[in-house]
Design brief:
Layout (H helix, E strand, L loop, with lengths): L2 E11 L7 E6 L21 E4 H8 L5 E6 L6 H13 L4 E4 L4 H7 L2 H9 L2 E4 L20 E4 L4 E2 L5
Parallel strand pairs: 2-4, 4-5, 5-6
Antiparallel strand pairs: 1-2, 1-3, 6-7, 7-8
Helix pairs in contact: 1-2, 2-4
Catalytic activity: glycyl-[protein] + reduced [flavodoxin] + S-adenosyl-L-methionine = glycin-2-yl radical-[protein] + semiquinone [flavodoxin] + 5'-deoxyadenosine + L-methionine + H(+)
Organism: Virgibacillus dokdonensis
EC number: 1.97.1.-
Length: 160
């Protein structure tokens, strides 16, 4: 698949990962987290169908790294993996947010999700849980979510 449903591409974020980032908000999410800050993102049809090359072109900025968000980028993993691969070829550091845990993504054995994981430098995993919401956390919304350095597989959430 060479297209993905995209809600928006936001430039110059400092809250969706370390440093200055462009954030690609993909449509579609199967998690339906209670208290979700973006329930509009759940429905694929709320996004605009964009070609992989168009997404990359719009997201690229020499000063920004990239965050894949949504919805859930792993919901459209086939196309998003192609986006991430191209962004990596441009030397971008990539963060990705997902409602699945890393363990679930690995257990799913979905080849597109596994491919997408290969391009992710930092994964913020786990569903948003309203009862564990904590506004003091950096780069995540609830205590159950982890910030995982995918190169070392180290969980950095213990520092909070």
């Amino acid at each position: 698949m060479d297209t993905a449903s995209v809600l928006s591409i936001y430039h110059d974020s400092v809250v969706d990962g370390e440093g200055l980032r462009a954030v690609i908000f993909f449509a579609g999410c199967p998690h339906f987290c209670k208290g979700c800050h973006n329930p509009k993102s759940w429905n694929l049809r709320n996004g605009k169908e964009m070609h992989v090359n168009q997404i990359v072109e719009e997201a690229l900025n020499p000063l920004n790294d990239i965050t894949l968000s949504g919805g859930d980028p792993f919901y459209q993993a086939e196309a998003v993996a192609k986006v991430a691969k191209q962004l990596k070829e441009h030397g971008k550091n990539i963060w990705a947010y997902t409602g699945w845990t890393l363990e679930q993504l690995l257990e799913n054995k979905d080849p597109h999700q596994l491919e997408l994981l290969q391009y992710v430098d930092v994964l913020v995993d786990g569903p948003f849980i309203l009862a564990e919401r904590d506004l003091t956390l950096t780069f995540r919304g609830s205590r159950n979510q982890r910030i995982i350095d995918m190169k070392t597989m180290q969980d950095y959430t213990m520092d909070d």
